Structure prediction request, 345 residues.
Amino acid sequence: MNKSTIAVVTLALSQGLLIQVAQADEPGYLGARLGYSELSSSACSLDAPCDDGSLGGGIYGGYNFNQYVALEAGLDLLGDFETNLGADTTGDAFMKAITLAPKFTYPISQEFDIFAKIGGAYMNYDGDSDVVPTGSLGLEYQLTKGLNARLEYQRYQDFTDTIVKDLDVNFFGLGLTYLFGSPEPETMNESEARPVSEAPAPQPAAEPVVTTVAATTAAATEIGKKQQNQLFDQGTFESGSAKLSDQGMESLKPLRDLLAAHPMARAEIVGHTDSGGSEEYNQALSEARAQAVADFLVEGGVSREQLIVEGDGELFPIATNETEEGRAQNRRVEVTIPSFEYDEI
Prediction:
């Protein structure tokens, strides 16, 4: 396959991917970046005026096949360069690039990911073009549920045309990425809230999680027996931390009032995470979130002797960790109240 054919295929696939991402509700993303581009030293071989550095930027988009692999396309205006490789080989124009590359991501914490890309780029400078290999290394940080910041270094290797030969381009950029299809934390509105005695039986673990899953109750005339299983999802906490959110504190109040009113009741509080990040980090985060729930209950009048607190990290997922929706379900705190007797009112 010659370079012209490769260029046409790269251009068509890149534009198609960007259009598909813009129209999709799937786990795709779009972003923009700004930074600084620098040409290799061979761009300025004479004492004549030469400018081998420039501000640059572009847009990019991709589709996440899973947590670790995506396909990304980019349209870049790398900068305005003035080159001289000899008396008859000068150039003064904007350098442009269209890229297509798989992107490989590894999460190092709940907020930080490192990534690498390696693929091809169709480049144009001063009326001439070439197809070159390109690769990048970068770091992404989750600013909000649907917005990431990106720090990236990208290299375009051996651009060659009638003006330049074996010219390398280095780009250092900062970008913002918008994620499509990012699930919002689920909340329970007033129409969904029910008294404990009217609540449905607990759902199987694989079913979608709501903020609280109410209890099953077996009532007698004077004495009742109650067993509860409740799940509190990631919306219970502020993003990436063990600090309870306002929504989380509201969702915990019925549980707090129940335990405070029935001191004979006991509660097992277990924190869970998804598989993003190291096992040690996830274990510590699960324990911290379970403890935050316990501390809130104690501050509301529940005795610490009523509570058993532990974290299971990423060991017991209730959904796949290959999708954002599944990972969101796995980030949870489960509270189990074994059966206890109480006086009916």
Summary: The chain has two domains: 3-179, 190-343. DSSP finds four helices and 13 strands in the chain. Residues 256 and 299 are 9 Å apart (CA to CA).
